[in-house]
Design a protein that fits this description.
The complex is a heterodimer of chains A (182) and B (497).
Chain A (H helix, E strand, L loop, with lengths): L2 H26 L13 H31 L8 H7 L10 H24 L1 H16 L4 H22 L18
Helix pairs in contact in A: 1-2, 4-5, 5-6
Chain B lengths: L1 H10 L2 H19 L5 H12 L4 H26 L8 H12 L3 H34 L4 H15 L7 H15 L2 E2 L6 E2 L13 H21 L16 H4 L3 H6 L1 H16 L5 H15 L11 H17 L1 H7 L5 H12 L7 H5 L1 H30 L6 H18 L4 H19 L4 H25 L10 H25 L1
Antiparallel strand pairs in B: 1-2
Classes of the chains: A mainly alpha (182), B mainly alpha (497).
Chain lengths: 182, 497
């Protein structure tokens, strides 16, 4: 996807989200006007209105720029090389292509699983496992170093939370069903 | 006077000194690591300050910020990779000196310049903030509403090449900030019937997600599978002339230091410009006014002095609009504003009236932080140089786990971890598609005050929009707001032509 297409898709998505917010979400999830002061929906509407206005304006501008570009090329077919160059992010505009989404998922999935894992297997085992996985994903291939780092980090954080800040850890420290840890 | 003395004594209490010292040391260490900057460090450490007194908390965070400004110079000088964006200009003369074995000398010059610039702007802040705040007390809701509107439009230009995307990001920030209980009706607004959202989105997970977690995700794209281990360019020379900055060399840079500090103060006091602008501007001026302009970029101490004193003098100066008007001019100050709010204080002119002793205590801590920066930098320089060599495979897993635990710590809520991860992903895409996360965050922080001012204007004027015409300051500020938006949009249209 070329830069222009990506930009158009982003602004179109923002414009659609803006319309959905104005027509459905803000009216449905905002309290009714109490009869004095500014209505509760005023500021959200202003913010979304500005967002929608800028997105539509950018869409119009992109459309005009594209049409102008085509005319100036005097009948030549739309260039594919420009799109190819843009696709590589040569102008600093980086795209969320498949590889980047893969990268994102590699980190977000373990992080997302950590939250329920705290409840399933306890804070300490879940955090240890998480750190081992995340180190592997980052590129650590030395098992002893990996285990040592995980142990040290979890021990320090647990001690800080338990004895320093006096904050309960999420879930239990160890699985509840293991009598060993009761 | 009594308040000043009491505040000064508070700042000299052992607990306050300990936290300021720790903050500066952590800041220097963190700033030295490429990819970890001051605002990110503040976001990560705000949850820890929940458990401190307000003075210790603000002193600690200010220490982190000041330390990070100097820390950024360490990797800039040793690796030619600025640890923080404002240290970019320091690389131009710092790295050539390192290549000649004079890395320690370059770092010492960076330290002395940093401390000089920082001390200068802190003194200025102490002298002018309180009198200016007294004047700002005459500003009513219309002026505050107009001022915040202007600040939001100016700030929309930070961190993006397109003002349209900046304004969209600021609007999204405003929208996110409105989630929670509506101030007039006291009923939930935009909460989607999720009860955890009734009290609004907490600043800590939002800031950690946008600033730290998304930054790490972007950085890891470059480091995954490469180990990320960075070696410094060369070992330090043991010759005294290559290690220390002589009095003569320092004195030769005094003029540059003073000029650059003034530039830093000017830039820092204006919302939206930030430390990188100050350091580039000061470097440019130093080169133009130097008797040896051709030596710049080849290892001239004056170049380091210009860049470092300018960017460090932004720290104190950027607190002026925060303390006087309650407007954060840059991201680090926005984070500090968040810390003030977490500790039950609203930055602005009333801060001096309501918390005079605390404010003078903070001023004391700011000055003490400068002294600690000098001491920590002077005696721990070689130790902090090791921070630049921490491999990515060790550093980033620790930071990711700290992000997760930090967002939980604020309210002991797992829901906040989910919020942090969500905003981490949002921040990742915002960075990728050039939407300013800075504008988003500042919009998010300022919206409650903006809405409050608007409600006060509407109620006091009894729905009369012509109220602004009777308030000249508010009218000028609103006109400036429209001018900024129209000018930015026209220039943006022209640039794409």
């Amino acid at each position: 996807m070329s830069r222009v297409k990506t930009e158009t898709a982003i602004y179109a998505a923002i414009a659609l989200a803006g319309i959905a917010l104005l027509v459905w979400i803000i009216p449905a999830y905002t309290p009714p006007y109490p009869g004095y002061g500014a209505p509760p929906a005023l500021v959200p509407n202003v913010a979304v209105g500005l967002m929608l206005f800028m997105a539509v304006l950018e869409l119009i501008r992109t459309g005009i720029a594209q049409r102008w570009g085509r005319r100036s090329r005097t009948g030549a077919p739309p260039s594919t090389t420009a799109g190819a160059a843009d696709a590589e992010g040569s102008d600093g505009f980086t795209q969320a292509g498949q590889a980047k989404l893969g990268h994102l998922f590699r980190f977000i999935v373990p992080c997302g699983l950590l939250v329920p894992a705290w409840n399933w297997i306890g804070f300490i085992p879940a955090s240890l496992l998480f750190l081992l996985v995340i180190q592997y994903v980052v590129g650590q291939r030395r098992p002893i170093a990996s285990v040592l780092l995980a142990l040290v980090v979890v021990a320090v954080i647990y001690a800080a939370m338990r004895y320093g800040f006096n904050v309960p850890v999420p879930g239990n420290a160890f699985p509840e069903y293991l009598p060993l840890w009761k | 006077m009594e308040m000043m003395i009491a505040g000064a004594l508070d700042s000299l209490s052992p607990i306050s000194l300990f936290f300021v010292f720790t903050g500066v040391a952590i800041g220097v260490g963190i700033g030295a690591i490429p990819g970890v900057n001051g605002p990110m460090a503040i976001a990560l450490f705000i949850p820890v300050t929940y458990y401190m007194s307000p003075l210790a908390a603000i002193g600690f965070l200010v220490g982190v910020n000041k330390g990070a400004f100097f820390g950024g110079a360490i990797s800039a000088v040793l690796l030619r990779t600025p640890g923080t964006p404002e240290a970019a200009a320091t690389t131009w003369d710092g790295y050539p000196l390192t290549s000649q074995g004079k890395g320690e000398k370059a770092l010492r010059m960076a330290l002395y310049s940093s401390v000089a610039g920082d001390f200068f702007s802190t003194l200025l802040l102490v002298v002018i903030a309180a009198p200016l705040a007294a004047v700002a007390l005459y500003m009513g809701p219309p002026e505050m509403f107009a001022l915040i509107s202007l600040a939001l439009t100016v700030i929309a230009g930070i961190g993006t090449q397109s003002i349209s995307r900046g304004l969209i990001a600021a609007s999204l920030g405003l929208l996110a900030g409105m989630i929670g209980t509506e101030p007039v009706t006291a009923l939930p607004r935009l909460t989607f019937d999720v009860y955890q959202l009734d009290s609004g989105l907490s600043l800590i997970p939002v800031a950690i997600g946008l600033l730290a977690f998304s930054e790490i995700l972007v950085h890891l794209e470059r480091h995954v599978g490469k180990g990320g281990h960075q070696e410094s360019a060369t070992t330090f020379s043991d010759k005294p002339e290559d290690r220390f900055v002589s009095f003569k060399e320092f004195a030769a840079s005094l003029k540059t230091l003073f000029r650059s500090s003034l530039i830093g103060v000017g830039v820092g006091a204006m919302p939206g410009l930030g430390a990188p602008v100050a350091s580039f501007l000061a470097y440019d001026q130093a080169q133009k006014r130097s008797t040896h302009p051709k030596e710049f970029g080849k290892g001239r101490l004056e170049g380091i002095a210009a860049s470092e004193s300018a960017n460090s003098s932004v720290v104190g100066a950027s607190l002026i609009p925060l303390f006087v008007l309650g407007i954060p001019g840059n991201l680090a100050v926005a984070m500090l504003m968040g810390a003030f709010m977490i500790h039950g204080m609203m930055p602005g002119p009333l801060l001096f009236e309501e918390n005079a002793q605390l404010m003078y205590g903070i001023f004391g801590s700011l000055i003490i932080a400068s002294v600690f920066l000098l001491l920590i930098g002077r005696f721990g320089l070689r130790l902090f140089c090791k921070a630049v060599e921490i491999p990515a495979v060790v550093l980033y897993p620790i930071v990711i786990f700290t992000c997760i635990v930090g967002s939980y710590l604020g309210q002991s809520s797992v829901f906040d971890v989910v919020i942090m991860l969500t905003f981490g992903v949002i921040g990742y895409f915002m960075r990728k598609f050039d939407f300013s996360y800075v504008a988003f965050l500042i919009g998010f922080i300022l919206v409650p005050e903006w809405e409050r001012a608007l409600q006060q204007v509407v109620i006091s004027s009894q729905y009369d929009p012509f109220l602004f015409f009777t308030r000249p300051v508010a009218m000028v500020l609103m006109l400036l707001t429209f001018f900024v938006v129209i000018k930015a949009f026209i220039s943006s249209m022209r640039s794409k032509g």
